[in-house]
Amino acid sequence: MTNQQPLVAIIMGSDSDWPVMQAAAAMLDDFGVPYEAGVVSAHRTPDLMFEFAEQARERGFRAIIAGAGGAAHLPGMVAAKTTLPVLGVPVPSRHLQGQDSLLSIVQMPKGIPVATFAIGEAGAANAGLFAVALLATTDNTLADKLAAFRQAQTEKVLNMTLRRDA
Ligand code: RP5
């Protein structure tokens, strides 16, 4: 993270979500996008959640990545209190492997959208990439970096060779 104005907030319901959510942070680091990461729980710190969501736009954030597991209300509740784009990441849960988290986040009623990503690390990384893409709509340098990332990814796959075990 840099000490520039953070453009993306990464929030999560518990520090136990961080091993998954740090994939979003790593992606933003790779693209040089300043962000802030912290724990905000819909269930355990509801007042903090409201305060965070109400102030997020005036604090200069352009997008919020919100990860939570189980009955994952955080992304939807934050989206209800801000007009910033909210990117929801379902964190794998102990008993239902994140299917509960996914359904809780994705099934938002009409009117309050949450862009919902895949369960787990891939979803967190893609939420980071999506935040980069959002910012790249008004930042050509970032758009060029995103194109270079895609190109490198393509070349990596084209250079894959398969070897049989002896
Ligand atoms: C949710 O409950 C969090 O997002 C986390 O995924 C889950 C479990 O939290 P801990 O019991 O690990 O703190 O609110």
UniProtKB/TrEMBL annotation:
Reactions catalysed according to its record: 5-carboxyamino-1-(5-phospho-D-ribosyl)imidazole + H(+) = 5-amino-1-(5-phospho-D-ribosyl)imidazole-4-carboxylate
Keyword line: Isomerase, Purine biosynthesis
Pathway(s) of this molecule: Purine metabolism; IMP biosynthesis via de novo pathway; 5-amino-1-(5-phospho-D-ribosyl)imidazole-4-carboxylate from 5-amino-1-(5-phospho-D-ribosyl)imidazole (N5-CAIR route): step 2/2
Domain PurE: 6-157
Binding-site list for substrate: S14, D17, R44
Enzyme Commission number(s): 5.4.99.18
GO MF term set: 5-(carboxyamino)imidazole ribonucleotide mutase activity
InterPro entries in the record: PurE_ClassI, PurE_dom, PurE_prokaryotes
PANTHER family: PHOSPHORIBOSYLAMINOIMIDAZOLE CARBOXYLASE (PTHR23046:SF2), PHOSPHORIBOSYLAMINOIMIDAZOLE CARBOXYLASE CATALYTIC SUBUNIT (PTHR23046)
NCBIfam families noted in UniProt: purE (TIGR01162)
Family: Belongs to the AIR carboxylase family. Class I subfamily.
Role summary: Catalyzes the conversion of N5-carboxyaminoimidazole ribonucleotide (N5-CAIR) to 4-carboxy-5-aminoimidazole ribonucleotide (CAIR).
Protein's recorded name: N5-carboxyaminoimidazole ribonucleotide mutase
